[in-house]
Design goal:
By secondary structure, this protein is an alpha+beta fold. 35% of the residues lie in helices and 25% in strands.
Length: 171
């Protein structure tokens, strides 16, 4: 019986010595990776950036239903954008956010250079915004009332057809 107890304790001690090393290697390997996740915050679907090993989530983009085209779901748009950004973040390339006004909506896209626009061949369209709102209201997670008030005060956040790089942007 003592022999089995000794073998059991020795095996446990070895396992406890090895396991933290393997976990630490995985933690260091994943620490630099960013994961984009979506959730609902109040009434808006919000995309967050999560870095494994960091307890904090960084809110990035918030979609209120008013900002989207009719028939679009804020949760679905959030998840689609999170998936696209996940793929783009894994490429070893710098990206910029750009917006472009269309007749019935604005489009938000990723471009590979500051001079690029959403129609360029190397752009990646992310989502469309209702023509009544500025895409920057979505990018800055503003409430629709805040967005309308800002536009009425002179369009402080309106930067159509030009590259936009929010403070949180990782590239």
């Amino acid at each position: 019986m003592n022999k089995f107890c000794y073998i059991g304790l020795t095996t446990t001690a070895i396992a406890m010595t090895i396991a933290p090393v393997a976990a630490e290697d995985n933690l260091n390997k994943n620490a630099a990776e960013t994961v984009f996740v979506c959730t609902t915050e109040n009434t808006a679907s919000t995309m967050y950036a999560h870095t494994p090993g960091n307890a904090m989530l960084t809110p990035l983009i918030g979609w209120h239903q008013d900002y989207l085209l009719q028939g679009s779901s804020s949760g679905e748009v959030c998840q689609q954008v999170a998936n696209k950004l996940q793929g783009l973040s894994e490429a070893d390339k710098e990206w910029f956010i750009s917006t472009q006004k269309q007749p019935n909506y604005s489009v938000v896209c990723m471009v590979s250079n500051e001079e690029g626009n959403c129609d360029s061949a190397d752009s990646e369209k992310l989502f469309k915004v209702n023509a009544n709102y500025s895409p920057n209201c979505v990018l800055n997670r503003l409430e629709p009332l805040e967005c309308t008030a800002t536009i009425v005060r002179g369009g402080i956040l309106s930067v159509p057809d030009s590259p936009y790089q929010p403070i949180w942007w990782p590239w």
